[in-house]
Amino acid sequence: MNKLSVAIITKNSKKSIEKCVSSALFADEVIVVDSGSKDNTVQICKNMGCKVIKKEWMGFGKQKQFAVNSCKNDWIFVLDSDEVITDKLQFEILSVLKSPKYKGYKVARLNYFFGKPLYHCGLYPDYTIRLFDKNFGTFSSDKVHEKVRINGKVGTLKHHMLHFAYNNIEEFIEKQNRYSSLNAKQNRLKAIINPYWTFFKIFIIKKGFLEGWRGFVIAKLYAQYTFWKYIK
What we know:
By secondary structure, the protein is α/β, with parallel strands linked by helices. The chain is built from seven helices and 13 strands.
């Protein structure tokens, strides 16, 4: 069976990192690349047996590619510090690694907002490529919303991972404000028009209304993010 490395990037992740790393310990290696944590994130990871590498922040794409390059095994699973690999996904990954049919695999995410999993708002299944052979896959160099590019065919795993996105509205606003600065595309016309479309798409077309007040808040705040992105 092919050996597996799990790559995680961190910064001040003490609230979520223990649960994240615990879900990854089935792998042959867990690599953590930390970009200057001021809390005890690094010590938690070391205590759990991870190899920790300190690296100044380069943007999401380059930081994750650095983490991938730091892994000793060819097969990589890239995990964010607020994500968890479920038991079912773990068993599926190990089964796939016995004889991979593809060079990379998409994995669904079940996103938790304000303590509850969301199946609407366009947030599920939220597929991204996470499991791949690093000889055939690389991250884009985007500062935010980075993607894995695979030179070969891509499969899809059946089971999802968990993403504990935001515990409260303050966290949501802070992160979206930061991301909008990284992804700024100044266009005043789009700043006026696009937020209305974003809200309508998430709340109506993607059936966010079925999530109650959470769906409304998510649609409203993503519309705000769209405004920030085009006005900055």
